Structures are given as C-alpha cells and as structure tokens.
C-alpha cells in the first residue's frame, strides 16, 4: 500500500495526537476525530510490529541458513469498517 504511512511516521503522528488530547483544549468534535485517527494509527503500528516480529521469528528459526523465507503479513484491513 503506497499511501500507508510507515511505522515511524505513524508513531510520531500518534504521539502528537496524544499530546493534543492531553492538553484538553480541543472541542469535543475535534477531540473525537483526533481520537479516531489515533485508533487508526495504533492499529497500523500494531500490524507493523506484528509483521516485524514474524520476520524476526522466521529468521531465528532458520538459524544460519541463507535466504529469506516468505510469510503472510497480517491483514491491516481486518476488523475495520
């Protein structure tokens, strides 16, 4: 997905959103939109971390063997409306 932000950008945006929400000065509607975006970013970050963990596990299982084994990345769209 070319339009999906990478992990670092997602995490940075999520941190910024948390700071905005913690200030407590957003109108309710803006706070809800900010929270919703935060949930989307959290899901993206969790999926990215899960994919990275799977890659590491595959590499560790292979030991010193050369080459990379493919794996099925988690479905980032699962559970979203």
Short summary:
The chain is mainly α and 81 residues long. Helices cover 64% and strands 0% of the residues. It has a domain of 52 residues: Exonuclease VII, small subunit (Helix Hairpins), CATH 1.10.287.1040.
Key words describing this protein structure:
single chain, 81 residues, mainly alpha, Helix Hairpins, 2 helices, 64% helix
- Structural class given helices, strands, pairing? mainly alpha
The CATH topology of one domain is what? Helix Hairpins
Q: Please, what is the CATH homologous superfamily of one domain?
A: Exonuclease VII, small subunit
CATH hierarchy, class of one domain: Mainly Alpha
Overall mean pLDDT stands at 84
Largest sheet: none
Q: Indicate the CATH architecture of one domain.
A: Orthogonal Bundle
Instruction: Write the element-wise H/E pattern from the N-terminal end onward.
Output: HH
User: What gap, in angstroms, lies between the N and C termini?
Assistant: 18 Å
Query: What coarse outline follows from CA principal-axis ratios?
Result: elongated
Counting H and I runs of at least 4 residues, what is the number of helices?
2
Report the count of strand segments: 0
- Residue fraction in strands: under 5%
Task: Please tell me how large the radius of gyration is.
Answer: 17 Å
Poorly predicted sequence stretches spanning 5 or more consecutive residues: none
* Helix fraction by DSSP (H/I, runs of at least 4): 55-70%
């Amino acid at each position: 997905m070319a339009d999906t932000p990478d992990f670092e950008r997602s995490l940075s945006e999520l941190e910024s959103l948390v700071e905005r929400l913690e200030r407590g000065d957003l109108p309710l509607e803006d706070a809800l939109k900010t929270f919703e975006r935060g949930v989307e970013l959290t899901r993206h970050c969790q999926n990215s971390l899960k994919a990275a963990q799977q890659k590491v596990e595959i590499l560790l299982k292979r030991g010193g063997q050369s080459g990379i084994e493919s794996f099925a990345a988690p479905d980032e769209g699962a559970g979203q409306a």
